[in-house]
Amino acid sequence: AGLGILLSRRGDYKPIPCIEDVSVPVARLPEYVADVTALIGRFSTKAGFYGHASAGCLHVRPFVNLKTEDGVTAMKELMDGAFGLAVKYGGVMSGEHGDGLQRSYLNERLFGPELYRAMRELKEAFDPRGLMNPGKIVDAAPPDTDLRFGPGYRPYELRTYLDWSSDEGFAGAAEMCSGQGVCRKLGEGIMCPSYMATRDERDTTRARANALRAVLSGKAGKEFLTGNEMRETFDLCISCKACKSECPSAVDAAKMKSEFLAHYHDIHGLPLRDRIFGNIHGLSRAAAVFPALSNAFMESGVGKSMLERIGISGERSLPALSGESFTEWFRKRPRKARVTHAGKVLYFHDTWVSYYQPEIGKAAVRLLEAAGFEVILAERRGCCGRPM
Ligand code: SF4
Fold first, then answer.
1. What ipTM does this complex have?
2. Of 61, 117, 213, 331, which residue is the least packed, with the fewest Cβ within 10 Å?
3. Is the domain 2-126 a CATH 3.90.650.10 member?
């Protein structure tokens, strides 16, 4: 939970894992906490602390803006300072997560030349061609190599259709992905159903955010924003919004897909299928004049091949129209049911209730009227798109 709260923070100051899980003997933990707090304070910033105090292991992530030179310098000095504290208290740089690409460069200083040489020889013995995790544990590059964001990072501000102010811009929303890859999990939760089905990195929430970030940061040309590769990257996203609640960084790929599609359709036009589904209320109302005939037609060979032509599998059965629409039932229902002593209730009957499952609306109306409410229908309202 601690990590999720930290990573869902919007803006340029991100919780950087540069100190992360320095671990010290439990008895020295209070002194270490005081020292590391003072160290972070010297850079006029704050940090998130969470972890396993009983094991002397705290995760400490200072907020640093790595899009500036000062931020990169601060990160390196914080790492040096944390290294000094680990040595001072007889601890290690990583008690839980491993050194990775970021902190392995400290290992020679931490373990001394003799032990470091032995570690290098051991790695070479098992991996003479340096294929497995190059640059980790030994022979690491400096910590500011290959930063996701660095001082040269300047995303361009796209004119957007949606309001992205709470993410500090569309680019800010794409930047929320920290690359952890929780969206690749299988067998628990919902995120991400497209990856669970295909097991292809391209169908993860991470890939979608990264693809957008690549365009907005200028790493990929602006034309990629409305290109077919981007469309394919978002194609299988079903906009379920599971990522918004399950991703530790609360990446909202469904909202990003809506923004992307608006730009894509500006260039390529709206496909017929989208026009049909966009007008699902009007089409349902027209088809509901002869519901039995419409249902039979949609299940016929001609109906199926029509669906195939607009990109809907003929093996898929469409929801059947109800014999009587909700509004017809509502108008025809007996007068005596209308008791009104408890007040008025405005009922929004959507397209689904109106033409496909009026039982839902009937049950709601019966319940409200039994409780003494007068039910009024919202006559001028749009379609929420639920039948889609
Ligand atoms: S909204 Fe899209 S990216 Fe997010 S979990 Fe659902 S399918 Fe995956």
1. 0.97
2. 331
3. no
Nearest to 285 by CA among 351, 198, 221: 351
User: Where are the chain's structural domains?
Assistant: 2-126, 165-269, 271-388
Which of 209, 176, 214, 175 is closest to 192 using CA atoms? Answer: 209
Neighbours of 128 (CB within 10 A): 8
Those residues whose C-beta lies under 8 Å from the C-beta of residue 108, and which sit 6 or more positions away, are 116, 138
Q: What is the pLDDT of residues 52-103, one digit of tens each?
A: 999 999 999 999 999 999 999 999 999 999 999 999 999 999 999 888 888 9
H/E stretch holding 176:
none
Distance (Å) from CA 234 to ligand 1 centroid: 9
Whose CA is closest to atom 6 on ligand 1?
240
> Which amino acid is residue 171, in one-letter code?
A
* β-pair type (343-347, 373-377): parallel
**Going by C-beta distance under 8 Å and a sequence separation of 6 or more, which residues neighbour residue 122?**
none
Instruction: Note whether 378 and 350 are within 8 A (CB).
Output: no
Residue 244 Cα, ligand 1 centroid: separation in angstroms?
8
Q: Order across the sheet with 14-15: list the strands.
A: 14-15, 57-64, 47-52
Radius of gyration of the chain measured on its C-alpha atoms:
29
Distance CA 330, CA 338 (A): 11
Helices and strands (DSSP H and E) totals, the chain: 19, 5
Beta-strand runs (E) in the chain: 14-15, 47-52, 57-64, 343-347, 373-377
- Give the tens place of pLDDT for each residue, 180-209: 899 999 989 999 999 999 999 999 999 999
Distance 246 CA to ligand 1 centre (A): 10
Residue with CA nearest ligand 1 atom 3: 205
| 211 Cα: distance to centroid of ligand 1 (angstroms) | 14
The response to whether residue 211 sits with its C-beta less than 6 Å from ligand 1 reads: no
